[in-house]
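Human:
Take a look at this sequence-structure pair and walk me through the tokens.
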Amino acid sequence: MPSFLQPDLQQVLSQAVSFLLLLWLLRRFAWRPLLTILDQRRARIEEEFRQVAQTKSELIRLQEEYGRRVSAIEEEARTKIQQAILEGKRIGGEIQEQAREQGAAILAKSKEAVELELAKARVTLRDQVAQMTLEAVERVLRGTLDAKADRHLVDQILDELERNQTRA
């Protein structure tokens, strides 16, 4: 067998001792600090995930609360709008009723004024007719009693009446 295939016991032992020493050194100075760092990092990541989950659940809760508040505000706004509409209709009805009452009062006053003016016109007309009748009787009594003169006097009086009526 060639010499390079034969194991050298001293070399194998020195390599085994070196390997075990290296393993012990790595375990003593590298593995523990490295495992500690990894454990700390794992704990930090888990804490961050927990905080993210907590923040997410808080965010969901806030969104739900916000949705409820928005719904409540919208409902309140709808209620206030409905109340305002009803109040507007009520006020509009009151205004219309007041306008009707005022219109009826104005119409009644106007009718009273027209009736008063009509009554005044009737009194004035009656006074004028009475005055004209008195004047006509007075003229008839002053004048001669012949038929032709009487006829002429009546025509004059009628003409005068027509003129007075057109003036009035």
In short: The first helix runs from residue 9 to 142. Residues 10-167 form one domain. The radius of gyration is 63 Å. The chain has one domain: 10-167.
